[in-house]
Structure formats: structure tokens, C-alpha cells
Design a protein that fits this description.
The chain is α/β, with parallel strands linked by helices. The protein is built from six helices and seven strands; from the N terminus they run βαβββαααβαβαβ.
Length: 182
């Protein structure tokens, strides 16, 4: 449902990431259909699905600042500079990174890099955010605080999240709905 936090839970190799990539249009669907907001998007390219994906590796641009990483998709859409800046500052404020806007990813902790990746994925306000093991690279304490932060941001924005995890604790503490795969 719109605004839900859904997790795909299961062991490695059961197809969680494949399902997520099919939803995002990064894998071909061999059977069945994918609907987003009631629209069949099965044969649409990723750019026409109104989804964003956050990868476990964060996939940040190392040569760009935090601000430029978050701004990137808005720049590609051709938004005017002042409108981009306004939206980026709002998003950086939401993820508590305003003071680090001029730093490069290599100057950030793992948790800070994760928040940059989250801000970059959310800046376009997608209908659906796809998260592939987003907490997997973080240590236990950081993972605990990011669980709370991810859920808070998701609720605040009202965006539907679909997250892949093999951690029962993550799934049960964050999700409105858990889909168990084996």
C-alpha cells in the first residue's frame, strides 16, 4: 500500500534482490506483471517507473561533494540552480547532514555516507524507494540508530519503502509488512 514500509526477508540466494531489481526495472521479468500505483510498469525502463534505488555499497560519486551527490538527479532533470539548491538543503536537513555539504564521501563515516545515499535516492520524491540491504555495511550500533532514522524519514515523507534484508531483527523492527522468501 502507499506509504508502507515493506521488507523482503530471507536467506542469501533466495531471490530477494532479484525481485527488488525487477521492481526497479533493472532485471527482466520472465513471468508475471509489476504494478506501481495501479499501473503496469513491467515493460517500462527504470527511468519511467518513479522508483529510486539505494544500494548496499551506497554508490556515491567520490569526486563530488555531499551537496553535489544529492543534487545530481535534479541537475539531470534540468531544474534551475536555485530550485535545486533549495531542495538539496531541505533534504540535507532531513538527514542531518547540512554541516557536511562541502565534504567528499571519503571524508565521511559509513553512517554519514549512508545518509548521503538515502538523501540522493529521496531527493526526486519517488513513489517507491527500493533498498537493497542498506544496513549491511554498518556496524551493530550504527545499524541500530539507522533503523530508527530510516523509519522516521519514511514516515515523515510518506514514501513507500521496499527493503531487502536477511536480518529478522531489521525486518520486524522497521516493516509494516514482512514478505518471507525461501
Amino acid at each position: 500500500e502507499r506509504g508502507e514500509f515493506v521488507t523482503l526477508l530471507g536467506p542469501s540466494g533466495c531471490g530477494k534482490t532479484t525481485v527488488l531489481r525487477m521492481i526497479g526495472g533493472l532485471e527482466e521479468v520472465t513471468e508475471g506483471k509489476i504494478y506501481i500505483e495501479g499501473n503496469d510498469v513491467t515493460d517500462l525502463p527504470p527511468s519511467h517507473r518513479d522508483t529510486a534505488m539505494m544500494f548496499q555499497s551506497f554508490a556515491l560519486f567520490p569526486h563530488r561533494t555531499v551537496f553535489q551527490n544529492v543534487e545530481f538527479s535534479l541537475k539531470m532533470k534540468g531544474l534551475p540552480r536555485d530550485e535545486r539548491a533549495r531542495q538539496v538543503w531541505e533534504m540535507l536537513e532531513l538527514v542531518s547532514l547540512s554541516e557536511l555539504a562541502r565534504r567528499r564521501p571519503s571524508d565521511l563515516s559509513g553512517g554519514q555516507q549512508q545518509r548521503v545515499a538515502l538523501a540522493r535516492a529521496l531527493i526526486a520524491r519517488p513513489t517507491l524507494l527500493l533498498l537493497d540491504e542498506p544496513l549491511g555495511a554498518l556496524d551493530f550500533n550504527l545499524r541500530q540508530s539507522m533503523i530508527v532514522e530510516l523509519k522516521k524519514i519514511q514516515r515523515e515523507l510518506g514514501i513507500t519503502f521496499i527493503m531487502v534484508t536477511h536480518s529478522q531483527q531489521e525486518a520486524l523492527s522497521m516493516a509494516d509488512k514482512v514478505i518471507v522468501m525461501s
